[in-house]
Amino acid sequence: MKSENFIKKIDEIKKKNGLDISVWEDLSIGLMNLVSLEEHCFFSYAKTKDEKFLRILDVVRELRKNLMLLIVKKDDESEKWCMSKHFLASSMRLYETANRLFHEGKEEEAKGMYHDSAELYGLFWELNSSSKNVEIKGSEKKGIFSSIKKLLECCNE
Predict the structure, then answer these.
(1) pTM listed for this prediction
(2) Of 50, 118, 133, 56, nearest to 87 (Cα)?
(3) Where are the domains positioned within the chain?
(4) Residue 71 carries which DSSP code?
(5) In angstroms, rounded to a whole number, what is the distance separating the alpha carbons of residues 91 and 88?
(6) CB neighbour burial string for 57-80, b if at least 16 within 10 angstroms, e if fewer
(7) Which residues in 28-149 belong to E strands, given as ranges?
(8) 12-51 pLDDT, tens digit each
């Protein structure tokens, strides 16, 4: 499916029913994976010099940019767009590292990494909360993720 068709479909759903936070969360996780695909395409090209990986990277990057517009608004002169991409990418990398640590039996290290991953993901939502008219208030002691756990319930359908 072309990205334009997908975006049109999302816009139709948005206009008809409004998107709830679980849809936004799903999309943000999808964006994490698209950033990861961009990275894999780059490293595959660097290892093989096969230009098909550059062509795939270009398609994936355009899809990610188009889909990011559904959450991240380019409405100011800040670095919000790039910060958003890096928050998502960093959150995913820490999550994947935590999974490996957990698998290796390093549970305490993994838990710390999971927490850090969640904090970065929470900062992504704090940065983009105005895009969806959602007010998020963080607590310096608990971290921003603690304050949005309820907001990001993934099973609200």
Answers:
(1) 0.72
(2) 118
(3) 3-148
(4) T
(5) 5
(6) beebeebbeebbebbbeeeeeeeb
(7) none
(8) 655 655 545 577 888 999 999 999 999 999 999 999 999 9
Gap between the Cα atoms of 9 and 2, Å rounded: 11
Enter the tokens of residue 121.
């993901």
Tens-digit pLDDT profile for residues 119-145: 999 999 999 887 654 444 444 445 555
Displacement of CA 154 from its chain's centroid (Å): 14
Contact 99, 110 (CB under 8 A): yes
Q: Which phi and psi angles does 105 have, rounded to 5°?
A: 85, 10
- Helix, strand, coil percentages (3-state) for the chain, rounded to 5, are 75, 0, 25
Distance between CA atoms of residues 60 and 3, nearest Å: 10
Q: What is the DSSP string of 40-58?
A: HHHHHHHHH--THHHHHHH
Q: Which strand (E) or helix (H) includes residue 154?
A: none
d(CA 115, CA 76): 30
**How many Å separate Cα 52 from the centre of its chain?**
25
